[in-house]
Structures are given as C-alpha cells and as structure tokens.
C-alpha cells in the first residue's frame, strides 16, 4: 500500500506579489526552494491563512535571497500582497517507508521571508 505524506513545507511566508497576467504558478525565492527541497515544476498546495483559500499550482524559481513569493495567473485572484501562506508538497511512499520519512520543513522570517 502507498500513501501520500508531506514532503516539503514552507510555513508562514508573506506574499510579495500577485501577477494575474502571468501564465500560472507560484514564484518562490530559490533559497526557500532549496531549504525545503522543492524543485522547479513540482506540484504544490497553497493555503492562505488570511482568507482560508486553498489551491494547487506548480513552483517556479525566483531570485535567490530575494524573499519573493508571487502567485501568478488565476491564483493571483486568491491572494493579496502581504497575505501569509503555507506552501506544501507531498510524496507518495510505501506505507512502511512513510512511517520513518522526515519532511523538509522551513520556518522563514515572516517580515522578509529570509531563512535567518
């Protein structure tokens, strides 16, 4: 049997932009992607703590150490600048492997989305 578990989580980051006219996705500071082990093109879930919205999209790499978190395309209608969100990705693992799996979870500074 296989189950889905949390693979990566960027907990409580501030949205820095919303670009309705972009094709789609979420742009994430490369340093945050590296720390959370999220790769470009990976499917992610977004949870908006300000309004309760939940959505799925894919990650694209933003400038390293920029603090950028931008929702693009239709997802831009679900957030506003300065909203606090959680970004989550999942992995499908065998049940026994899932029991010992440790996800990559990062807690950025909410003021500037830095890792310090």
Instruction: Specify Rg, calculated over alpha carbons.
Output: 14 Å
Percent helix range: 10-25%
Oligomer: single chain
Instruction: Tell me the count of domains.
Output: 1
Distance between the termini: 39 Å
Which H/E pattern describes the elements?
EEEHEEEEHE
Would you count the extended β strands for me?
8
H/I helix tally: 2
Structural class: mainly beta
Question: Mean pLDDT across all residues, rounded?
Answer: 97
Q: Main beta sheet: strand number and arrangement?
A: 8 strands, mixed
Work out the strand percent.
over 45%
CATH topology: Barwin-like endoglucanases
At the first level of CATH, the class is Mainly Beta
Strand line-up in the sheet with most strands: 2-6-3-5-4-7-1-8
Q: Low-confidence parts lasting 5 or more residues at pLDDT below 50?
A: none
Describe the structure.
With 116 residues, the protein is mainly β. It has a single domain, classed as Barwin-like endoglucanases, CATH 2.40.40.20. The protein contains two helices and eight strands; from the N terminus they run βββαββββαβ. The chain has helices spanning 30-36, 95-100; strands at 2-14, 17-19, 25-29, 43-48, 54-62, 69-72, 84-94, 104-106. It has an eight-stranded mixed beta sheet with strand order 2-6-3-5-4-7-1-8. The chain is globular, with a radius of gyration of 14 Å. The relative contact order is 0.37. The model has no long low-confidence stretch (mean pLDDT 97). It catalyses: L-aspartate + H(+) = beta-alanine + CO2. The active site is at 25 (schiff-base intermediate with substrate), 58 (proton donor). The modification Pyruvic acid (Ser) is found at residue 25. GO terms for molecular function: aspartate 1-decarboxylase activity. Heterooctamer of four alpha and four beta subunits.
């Amino acid at each position: 049997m296989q189950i889905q578990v949390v693979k990566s989580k960027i907990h409580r980051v501030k949205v820095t932009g919303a670009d309705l006219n972009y094709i789609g996705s979420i742009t994430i500071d490369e340093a945050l992607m590296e720390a959370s082990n999220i790769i470009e093109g990976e499917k992610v879930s977004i949870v908006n703590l300000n309004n309760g919205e939940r959505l799925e999209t894919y990650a694209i790499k933003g400038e390293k150490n920029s603090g950028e978190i931008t929702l693009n395309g239709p997802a831009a209608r679900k957030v506003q600048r300065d909203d606090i969100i959680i970004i989550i990705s999942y992995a499908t693992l065998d049940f026994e492997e899932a029991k010992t799996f440790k996800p990559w979870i990062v807690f950025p500074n909410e003021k500037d989305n830095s890792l310090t």
